[in-house]
Amino acid sequence: ENIFDRSRMAPKTPIKNEPVDLSKQKSCTPERNPITPVKLIDRPQPDPWTPTANLKMLVSAASPDMRDREKKKELFRPIENSEQSDTPDSLQYDMVDDCTVDEFEKQRPSRKQKSLGLLCQKFLARYPSYPLSTEKTTISLDEVASILGVERRRIYDIVNVLESLHLVSRVAKNQYCWHGRHNLSQTLKTLQEAGELQYGELMTFFQHKEQDLEYKFGERKKETIPDSQDRPLLDFSEPDCTSASANSRKDKSLRIMSQKFVMLFLVSKTKIVTLDIAAKILIEETQDTVDHSKFKTKVRRLYDIANVLTSLGLIKKVHVTEERGRKPAFKWIGPVEFPGKTDEPRGHSPTSDPLPGTQRGACVPYQICATGKQRFTRHASFNGAQPCEGTRRKVSSEPNSPRQERQDEYCSKMINLAAVCRQKIEEDKTIFNSARKPSITSPLSLLPVPGDSDFCVNPLPQAVFPVVQADVPNLSLPNGVNSQALHPCTPAASKTENGKPTLLPNQPFLCFPPSSLFMLCGGLQENNLRETLPTAGDMGNRSAEAQTTVPPAACQKRSSHKCASPSAPVDDEEPAAKKQTMEQSDVPLSLVVPKKPFESPKAESTPGSGCTSAEHLEDFHLDHASPAVPEAVHEESTKPLDSQEQEKWSQNKDPDEPSPGKEHISKENANQPFLPQYLFVQPTAGLSSFNFLLSANQAPGAISLAASQLPSLSVPCVVVPSAALASFPLVCSPTITGPLSPVPDGSFSAATSVNFSMSGLASTTPVFIGTTAVVTPKVSPVPSVDPQQPAHPTLHLSPVLARSCGAVKLDSPVCMGHPVTLLKLQQPSSTPLTPKSIRPAHHEAFFKTPGSLGDPVAWKKNEGNQTRNASSVQRRLEISSTSPD
DNA sequence: CGATCCCGCCACATT
DNA sequence: AATGTGGCGGGATCG
Fold first, then answer.
1. What are the residues whose beta carbons fall under 8 Å from the beta carbon of A864, sequence distance 6 or more?
2. N or C end of chain A: smaller count of CB under 10 Å?
3. Is the Cβ–Cβ distance between A716 and A520 less than 8 Å?
4. How far apart are CA A455 and CA A477, in angstroms?
5. Is A138 helix (H, G, I), strand (E, B) or coil?
């Protein structure tokens, strides 16, 4: 209250304090009057003064009392004067209105006045943004808390976030050192790099940054310390200050969350991150489902963090309107480029270094082979990844088991990510519109898991798709995978948007080593799509690769049409250029995808251009709403060629999609939904070991369209964590012809899923995904155009994939291979447990904190129940720290 | 009614 | 044991 009063006194600041303003303010003025504190102290009634106390008082007190007090306060106010001139709205009101008690009452308590954001501003106002190096500013939590008139607990909330950005560091109990923003850029850079590496692709896709981060952390620690404990927090350790070591214990989830949250922004193309997505990402746990409560808690925490970041002027609240409605989101308004940085990717940058070492081999760095997407961030990440590998290797050697665990985690994470991705995708669609360039892009990417050499993608020569189980693995893997795969991929990827990644070209399929995880993202590159179709050329590659069968046709179309539907034809023509463009756009994947794309607009607008999507997309954003119809129309128009096929696809849609097979419906769905829907098969599902996501949406032609449009969204992902699983190799054939066949949606999906599961069972059996679309037997009909190769028969998945791909947009060629990421997991026990069963074990490991490792119990503490639930974050942390394996 | 998010209990960590 | 930290989520307020 005092504060308020003061403010009131003050004068003036306009009432509202929006965060933005605040931020500005804060930086400027350092502290206000020092005096205040004293006064505070002096204050006659300590109790009352405390916010809480006051509130209570107010509440309890009858109105009369209240009034009196208020009056008093007023008196005080002037005296005290707040440090900050700004006053909260209410204050002003009070000023004006004062008179009425009631008003006062109301106002005072106003929640807004007590908001963490406001408090943070006040806090920040006390210290110079860029303190002289010479001066060391120490912050006493108690003092600040009393000065600001809040409980200490609140100060912790602020300080923890600031600490995550290295604006302050803890020097001792109750003592923090103020560093100011001198290192902010460095910190952000570090976070960005870390984010890219880790999330990198994923992120791009969807952001699953978090995982990566953790890993990173872990890695670092490992390097330095064996894991354990330390927490890494760090992260980043930034140079500066602080101690880095300091961290102690727990990871402070708030700090980590804060960092991760920031990373998401930095990695995001659009710089916009919706709360729900962030929350999902942050929730390790798996799955989506997971607790709803947990999700809520995460969101709450994110609000806390967001308020502080807002006060720092790094983000601002925005709303993304999606189909569903508008979602709360935050946009990064802080620095985007950091001096120097950028560099490359490879990681090697400082940041990278740290990362690499550690954990999972970093797990992650997933390398991507992906295709198109590659370009984006990935490049960097890519590179980075490799490096990481090196480091990883080291690590890997050691700890397999641990790794395994990690892998497991990864799996779970992947799953989560997948879920997140889906959502994101969806969101993206809706969301911004922003889809801008970036979004489009992402075709698929692969992330190989680091582990060791893991995955490789090799191109199989052909297509053989045989699903041969046993055989397959051999084949594909053989190559050397990583290096080869990766490298090639990259280039390839880059080249083609379409991409297919390297793999494709030669190889129709990608083989994954057993136990690997994959994420496939279908990029939707327009190009690809287009390419695919018509051009055979570009697309051709893929298709060719695949040998696919498939050329052309339908699949491509679909994809194309989505993206470019309008332009589709054109696309063909243009392919290269566009592709390039696409690529660019791609690059930036952002978490948030703009979904928008929708459709139609583009079509028209871009006549030839086709996909141009990015741009167009932006324009359209909105559209969700409108979209459907128009889109449909467009599509049709555009489609014509494909349309039939497409339609088929649409029909096929995945089960996920509700829609029955109708084209229209599907389309519609597609539109909005573009989202890539994925089919997620968790291990738990019973599938033996696979988890994967397929984009359902895509499948349908309609969808595909949409997908195409939305580049980003479209990407289908397939995750196969199998860490547990041990061995499933996957092969993807880029081309998918299959879709063509008019399989019922449900059927498809079902089939697909089934297939997978089957494969899973086989554990050993490799799965192939052929670029070329494989037609599923079921599908067989593929009447369509392509002759496709039947190769796939074996793999069911392929069909699915194919669809997705197709849907996705053919870019997919990419889909097939490129996009896919592999993560290797080594699993010690290859036992094929059910996924679920498996997980648990792993999880434990993961979760366990270093210290606790031994005891699972620890986790339990609070709630046995939760155990799982227990903050995933923590787990992550633990994991990272532990790394260890 | 959903979005925000304050408040403070309480567990865990540190002293 | 006292005190510092900070996870967490009930439930109030906002819009």
1. none
2. C
3. yes
4. 7
5. strand
C-alpha A272/C-alpha A834 separation (Å) is 38
Is A303 (CB) below 7 Å from strand B? yes
* Residue A703 token pair: 């969808």
Tokens 């699983």 correspond to A725
3-state secondary structure of A574: coil
Q: What's the confidence (pLDDT) of residue A250?
A: 55
Q: Enumerate residues 6+ apart whose C-beta is below 8 A from A525.
A: A372, A440, A441, A442, A443, A497, A498, A499, A563, A579, A582, A583, A586, A611, A708, A711, A809, A810, A811, A812, A814
Nearest nucleotide to the CA of A866, by C1', is C8
Model confidence pLDDT, tens digit, residues A448-460:
223 222 222 333 3
The closest alpha carbon to A610, from A563, A670, A573, belongs to A563
Q: Find which nucleotide's C1' atom is closest to A307's CA.
A: B5
A297: how many CB neighbours lie within 10 A of its CB? 16
Q: Which nucleotide is nearest to A296 (CA to C1')?
A: C9
- A519: three-class secondary structure by DSSP: strand
For residue A147, CA distances in Å to A155, A228, A723 come to 11, 38, 53
Query: Which nucleotides on strand C sit less than 7 A from a protein beta carbon?
Result: 4-11, 13-15
Cα A596 from Cα A617, distance rounded (Å) = 6
- Please state, in angstroms and rounded to a whole number, the distance separating the CA atoms of residues A266 and A258: 12
Determine the protein residue whose CA lies at the shortest distance from the C1' of C5: A156
Q: What integer pLDDT is reported at residue A262 of this predicted model?
A: 87
Say which DSSP state A607 is in.
Answer: S
Burial class (CB in 10 A: 0-12, 13-18, 19+), A131: middle
**Residues 247-276 of chain A: which lie with beta carbon within 7 Å of strand B?**
248-250, 275
DSSP strand E in A258-314: where?
Answer: 272-274
pLDDT at A282: 72
What's the DSSP call for residue A545? I
Residues of chain A with confidence (pLDDT) below 70: 1-109, 198-252, 283-291, 323-324, 339-885
Which nucleotide lies closest to A117 by the C1' atom and the CA atom?
A: B5
Pick out the nucleotide with least CA–C1' distance to A862.
Answer: B11
The model scores a pTM over 0.85: no
User: Within window 170-209 on A, which residues have Cβ closer than 7 Å to strand B?
Assistant: 173
The sign of the CA dihedral A419, A424, A426, A427 is positive
pLDDT of A517-541, one tens digit each? 333 333 333 333 333 333 333 333 3
Our CA angle for A175, A877, A174, nearest 5°, is 10
C3 nearest neighbour residue (CA to C1'): A173
In chain A, which residues from 51 to 110 place their CB closer than 7 Å to nucleic acid strand B?
51-52, 55-56
Nucleotide at minimal C1' distance from the A849 CA: B12
The per-residue pLDDT for range A289-316, each reduced to its tens digit, is 556 777 888 888 888 898 899 888 888 8
User: Are A722 and A825 a contacting pair, CB within 8 Å?
Assistant: yes
Per-residue pLDDT of A471-507, as tens digits, reads: 333 333 333 333 333 333 333 333 333 333 333 333 3
Distance CA A694, CA A716 (A): 6
A156 touches strand C (CB under 7 A): yes
Q: What pLDDT is recorded for position A339? A: 65
- Where on strand B do bases come within 7 A of a protein Cβ? 3-9, 11-15
- Three-state SS for A857-884 is HHHHCCCCCHHHCCCHHHHHHHHHHHCC
> What pLDDT does A136 receive?
79
Radius of gyration for chain A, computed over Cα atoms and rounded to the nearest angstrom: 27
**Where in chain A are the domains?**
116-213+250-332
CA distance A522 to A804: 7
